[in-house]
């Protein structure tokens, strides 16, 4: 059973678009470039919550000039 306080472990691309406030095209570009990890379940492309956190951490490192 899922409660309102539990966050999903996997997100659909459209959910990631809303979470990161990026366009769908940009999200797919990030996936193609390897900057945002995904997994496949059947025909669905899903983004793990950990991949979103890793991407945000990458942006923070780049903003500080570190890689």
Mean pLDDT: 93
N- and C-termini, Cα separation: 40 Å
Radius of gyration: 13 Å
How are helices and strands ordered from N to C?
EHHEEH
Description:
This protein has helices at 13-20, 24-33, 49-63, and strands at 10-12, 39-41, 44-48. It has 67 residues and is α+β, with helices and mostly antiparallel strands. It has a three-stranded antiparallel sheet. β2 (39-41) and β3 form a beta hairpin. The longest helix has 15 residues, at 49-63. The radius of gyration is 13 Å and the shape is globular. The model has no long low-confidence stretch (mean pLDDT 93).
Summarize the topology.
Layout: E1 10-12, H1 13-20, H2 24-33, E2 39-41, E3 44-48, H3 49-63
Antiparallel strand pairs: 1-3, 2-3
What distinguishing features does this structure have?
67 residues; alpha+beta; three-stranded antiparallel beta sheet; 3 helices; 3 strands; 49% helix; globular
Kindly summarize this structure in a few lines.
It is built from 3 helices and 3 strands, in the order βααββα.
């Amino acid at each position: 059973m899922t409660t309102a306080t539990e966050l999903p472990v996997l997100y659909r691309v459209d959910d990631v678009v809303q979470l990161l406030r990026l366009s769908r095209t940009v999200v797919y570009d990030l996936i193609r470039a390897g900057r945002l990890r995904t997994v496949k379940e059947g025909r669905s492309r899903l983004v793990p919550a950990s991949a979103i956190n890793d991407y945000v951490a990458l942006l923070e490192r780049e903003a500080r000039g570190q890689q």
